[in-house]
Amino acid sequence: MKAIPINESEAIFKRFMDVYRSEFPAWQVESSPGADVRQYWCAVQARWPRGNGNRVCRMVRECAADLDGYDRLIFRLSLPSTAEITLRARVDGVEKTVIQAQKGLDDYGEYEGPISGSRIQRLEFDIIDYADSPGNSLMSWLGLANSTKREEMLARENPFLEAWQGLVLQSPLTSRPEPTLGLFFSNHDMAAIRSRAFVGLLDSDEGLLKVGVEHLLAAVHCEYWIDGPIMTLPGGTHEHRAFVAYRVASNIVCGLDWAGALLNDAGRAAAAHALATKGLPACLISLMRHDYMRDCNQGTYMAYGAILIEAALAKLWPPHGGELIDAAKRAVDETVERYLGEDGGAFGGPGYVSSTISHAIIAYQVYARNKGLSLAEAVPEKLLRSEAYFATMSSTVPPVGSSVCVADGGHPGALAGILPRIADLENIGTPGSAFNLIYGPDTLDAPAPKPPVFSLMSVTGQLCSCRQTRGGPVRIQVIGAPPLAGHAHEDKGSFIIEAYREEIAIDRGQISYNDPRCEVMSHARYHNVLLPDYEDGGPARQQNPCKVSTIPEGKGDETSLDCSLDGSGLYPELVSHWTRSIHSATATEFVASDLMIRRVSGTVSFHLQSRNPWIKTDTGWATEGKKARLDVYPEWAPMYAWGGEDFIEGHKAAAHHLILRAAPGIRHELTTRLILKPVGAGRQQ
What is the pLDDT of residue 438? Predict the structure, then answer.
């Protein structure tokens, strides 16, 4: 078998990232107790409940891969930093260790080692993890490299440095720059927008415009607008969605419109050609091939890209350049209708919902300008209901506009409104905060957090109560979901408490999907829930996505809160019934009452998360932040109690975990009291 070249010095011979070409069933797999290895979306995934210095995964297979011309073996995978990978190969009948105990990066990486001979006949690799927490690894491909050719390739001077000579007008410009296409605003809008200090075009800053053009032309000259060889490898079947292509294309459209005054006709033609050949097909293929996209954020992402490209081509290639814009607009309409609930909310957390709404609004604005309509004529009424969701998810914790962390869209610092600017989260940071300046109001009220006193999203499954105290606001979020909610965590029945503008009972949030720990962040044990324990004492996993509704019910006002949630369907093999009720007669005290009935006798554990250490008190436990202290009093007798540092939260800082375990039994009725005080206001014992 010959490896398939991906450039002049590297090649791939095992493609785990392509489900149809992976050959995963041909591998012999051994995993530790409770672990599993499976073919995943674009990788082979290994998951394990704990490492403790043991081998968690071994994969072995016979093969026949020619080494002619190659002297390095590469294994691309994501691996936690607590784990290490060792790979052995049989080459021409001789066993060799190629990769020896290389440590993970908490990200994707290419792990490699020297190899020589004629043919690889057998491969074997082990993953050992030293953490006592759950772990996860995603394996992309196995490949080969010619180290000499690779060094030559990387040392070669960039051939594109002079490539856009002849595409840019000579400086200085003889007239004031204007929007080239007018897709987002026209020249007569410039005075109003200029008052908001929109740079480059608005300030006629030719230097900034030149930077924009250089970025635009660099992207135009890229051969592919995709992330790696996953879609370009000959014979491949995996379509990795247009996540990269639509962002590159939308940036080129903006650059072409706002900095296009510096391009000559050839430069504009080059940009149009790149949009039509590398951007538009990618967006349309994703929308045509995958119906599920219209059930989640992805539908608006790809349709947004297609609408911007088509609107640009309508200006550049009249009269037929924008003929597909209506098809793209229908995809936005269908996504808004299918993704948003009747209450204006959606699953996935505020990061995903705000991103979906912002993509949709800008897409509708561009479409309306293309058709000569007002924005109101293009936007469906259902989208406007999302205001209730953003209010329900808004946080009291600075900065103003932050949201509570829920599910995969629960990134710390994510804004509960649209069009935020978050540098390391492209899905949330696109389209970008510049559009706040373009389309936002001329004046704004002084910013202030305004969570509702009480709000229940009866379709989305989010409940918010926010009451004022002398020390500041106290806010609780109770988390549920509709059936089969995507981008979800095992957080049904969990709650988040903010006190005096500090989150004290936390949701850990989420981290980048490239970090293998992201899958572990979703586990039930890292949320504020009551969990049945497995026979070995390990915490159970919630069914995710859950097949039944877990919508909370309740009522509240400025004084009190009463709510409940039925989570009986979350642990179908272990539990026949679980309900959680929360009663709060005053803002500073919450009483959580759990009734869990196991199918067979066993323990259950009350889990609570904090960013701050847990302290044992005379009758309970406490955690103290900079502004708030939370005391926890179990009105039952835990057979085991532990509070300590355990894994991470969304900023990748250490988090602290309290576990209170009840004695074995079938029926568990547990009442746990939580009391809040400002720091320094006295101690509960």
Answer: 79
Q: For residue 409, what pLDDT is reported?
A: 84
pLDDT digits (tens, 9 = 90+) for 199-219: 556 667 788 888 888 889 999
Q: Identify the helix (H) or strand (E) that includes residue 521.
A: helix 518-521
Would you call the peptide bond into 80 cis, given omega within 30 degrees of 0 as the criterion?
Answer: no
**Burial tier of 667 (Cβ tally within 10 Å: 0-12, 13-18, 19+):** exposed
Q: Does the 187-230+237-439 domain belong in CATH 1.50.10.100?
A: yes
Residue 32, pLDDT > 80, answer: yes
Using alpha carbons, select from 612, 593, 595, 614 the residue that is nearest to residue 604.
595
Domain ranges, ordered by start, for the chain: 4-155, 187-230+237-439, 454-678
Q: Quick one: tokens of 229?
A: 């060889």
Residues listed for the chain: 685
Contact 413, 425 (CB under 8 A): no
CA max distance for the chain: 84
The backbone region for 619, taken as left when phi is positive above 0, alpha when psi lies in -120 to 50, beta otherwise, is alpha
Tens digit of each residue's pLDDT (9 = 90 or more) over 83-127:
999 999 999 999 999 999 999 999 999 999 999 999 999 999 999
CATH of 4-155, one of 2.60.120.260, 3.40.630.10, 3.30.450.20, 2.40.50.140: 2.60.120.260
What pLDDT score does 203 carry?
66
- CATH 3.20.20.140 for the 454-678 domain, yes or no: no
